[in-house]
Input
Amino acid sequence: MGQRSRNDGLPPPPFVEEVSDGIYAYLQLAGQWGLNNSGFLVGSRAVTLVDTCFTERRTRALLDAVRLLSGHPIRTLFNTHEHGDHTWGNFVLPESTTIVGHERCREGMLAEGLAAQAVFTGVEWGDIVLRPPSVTFADRLTLWVDDLRLEAISMGPAHTTSDAILWVPERKVLFSGDLVFNGGTPFVLMGSVQGSLAALHQLKELGAETIVPGHGPVAGPGVLDEQIAYLRHIQTIAADGWSVGLSPLDAAREADLGPFVHWHDPERIVGNLARAYVELAGAEPGVPIDVAGALGAMVEYNGGRPLRCLA
Ligand SMILES: [Zn+2]
Output
């Protein structure tokens, strides 16, 4: 077998990046559909993990990478939100691992089950068993790695209705979950445009110096301004399209993506506009909308090609 060429469309292997002493990002670049980031914090006796992966195979690779850096057991797993690319690998952890997440993360996982497998075809999922958080919180929860304080803070509705971040104030390190897609198109169909903007402004106030996004490379705080600029652009496109009676799909087709044109998974604009439209009509952030219909319109935007998941 020869080496894979650079342009065969396959993602590079995942890798670990130490972002602060004993704090690591596990990166699956470039962060397209299904290629999420995880993270882990190594204490003197135990490891705390942030998110698992979409498939069993990818999660086993993640755990192998953790073991290379620490022989301590993973006592705690924190889920940033309900999506399968961050939670479906939960079941690979031993029963002795406590899984922590927002209460709506648990509810959302149980409500959706493995339905997303029908959206992303051709993926080798493995024998996934849904394992939602068994410790849940509504607003905030503090976790500890020895004397290091980790603040879990509810942020939704934003990317979903179940978003929570993990903030390490002493190190100014933020695990943002999918409130940040670095280099990729943000996706708020299942959450809120307004709510995401509010959450991103709240994140700016934390004063993070290092951000491990839900997808894409580790970033500095400037990435928050990029996400804000994109979502404001979405609100402008939505308002213009709405005023002349365009559907979200047609508004997306006519839109000038401007500085965001190189971000991957651009079809998410259709889902983002669908959410922006219901908010223009006065809907509260995070109310249920026709997600399946919007996903179908995203496929149409792509010329009928199904969403490509590289997991
Ligand atoms: Zn997500």
In short: Residues 1-7 have pLDDT under 50 and may be disordered. The first helix runs from residue 56 to 69. Helices lie at 56-69, 84-87, 103-112, 193-206, 222-243, 248-254, 268-280, 291-301. The radius of gyration is 19 Å.
